[in-house]
Amino acid sequence: MNDVTQFTRADWQARAAALRFRNEIWIDGRAVPAASGARFESVNPASGAVLTDVARGGAEDIDRAVASARRAFEDGRWSRKTPAERKEVLLRLAALIRENVPELALLDSLDMGKLVKDAATIDAPGSAHFFQWHAEAIDKLYDEIAPTGGRDLAMIRRVPLGVIGAVVPWNFPLDMATWKLAPALATGNSVVLKPAEQSPLSALRLAELAAEAGLPDGVLNVVPGFGEDAGQALGRHADVDCLVFTGSTAVGKMFQRYAGESNMKQVWLETGGKSPNLIFPDADLDAAADMAAFGIFFNQGEVCSANSRMLVHASIAEEMIERMAARAAQAQPGDPLDPASAMGPLVDRKHADTVMGFIASGKQAGRLVCGGERIARDASDAYVQPTIFTDLRPDARVVREEIFGPVLTIQTFKTEDEALAMANDSPYALAASVWTRDLGRALSVSDRLNAGTVSVNTVDALSAMTPFGGMKQSGFGRDLSIHSFDKYSALKTTWIKY
Ligand code: NAD
């Protein structure tokens, strides 16, 4: 039986008990220990149990991985394959991901606490889809000939950059890695991937599947380890051509500094968010409430584009607050392996402490509508209730700062201009949502919102076909879509006189 939607908690538990964890560094097509011999524990936040210990990569391991990636790039074993040949390998990888959805989903769920049903129906199939999409696109991109006229032929071609360093977060471990790897590999680059220390397991399995699909050794290397050592070493490495990052704004700024202080490598950043969700009185309020709840409670609110700020017209504020409190009551966390659970634990106790700190500050700055407590469950202290605040000061920390947890603030506005001023009053500009039945208002408000993506009458609209990324301190550069190839290639002109 392979229909993951029919799996029971007992089915998932049985599969979890039978899992084998890949826990070494992956360099040059082989699993190797860290040069230092150091290891770190991978802990299941739902139970506090240690899953396995993982090789802790450091600067020496990053060096070896970059050297392996460089060799692979220079000898052309992948970089000089035709786009159609690369496509075939990546399509096989997509197929292997599909065959291994339950295992990949479990790895992410156990490693960082997301619901396994979501990992099995969204994250893992999404990863297969994104590999397939970029693979299928790569042999359909044409290069250019400049209109020079005369006895000149000026060809403008996209060429791969060389060695890409990719540093990714723990909230969608498999998908955030895939968003970088699929376009980077399709364009012919070699990659050194550093997964987050909280969630290295799916990336290590993915590397093995890529080898099985026929990706040559050295083209994809995965170095698990901590940010300040492995991450920083990659960011500062003199032989890395481009560093792509998804994570917090604070660390994104560090990568800009690392690049400036080393070899001026290209840096592309997908960073934090504090996305507003504007509800006008003519909206379908039930649909808006359903999607707003998804927008903040999906993945425990650990989503960069989470709709963490609801801005609602004063005339419907009380109705919306009631609706949201009812939705929050249905979003209580439970065992991530239980298909009946609505949320899992946060990624670890440390992050739960941070979120509880925000909640404590919210209690001082406004009115707690619901939630606001930690939940003790099994041996874990990483569970936090879905929480809603209103009547907040505009300068409250819960309104201004990214919480990255299941915490929603609700503020009211009286006019469209006021709504826009509040929405745009943020250092972030990743995503936004607008709810209205008035098409003219939907378009004019969308135009004036600072955001990489504006969703109208939905939240967090996203697909392989559309670019994803932010403005302001949410970063720059785009993942997904044809435009993602821009980050992984340079335009090269070859001018021939004849
Ligand atoms: P983080 O910035 O702490 O860590 C992200 C990665 O950076 C990890 O691999 C980590 O090991 C590494 N890192 C940490 N410190 C480092 C350092 N000093 N030098 C080099 N590397 C370092 O972020 P996180 O807590 O893992 O993830 C949450 C953040 O990610 C949130 O801010 C969220 O908004 C953001 N995020 C953004 C997007 C997007 O597309 N914009 C998507 C998902 C998550």
From TrEMBL:
Chain ranges of the Aldehyde dehydrogenase domain: 35-493
Molecular function terms, GO-annotated: aldehyde dehydrogenase [NAD(P)+] activity
Catalytic residues, chain numbering: 270
Pfam families membership: Aldedh
UniProt keywords, alphabetically: Oxidoreductase
SUPFAM superfamilies xref list: ALDH-like
Keyword Oxidoreductase: yes
Keyword Oxidoreductase: yes
PANTHER family documented for this protein: ALDEHYDE DEHYDROGENASE-RELATED
Similarity comment: Belongs to the aldehyde dehydrogenase family.
Name the record gives this protein: Gamma-glutamyl-gamma-aminobutyraldehyde dehydrogenase
Organism lineage: Bacteria, Pseudomonadati, Pseudomonadota, Alphaproteobacteria, Rhodobacterales
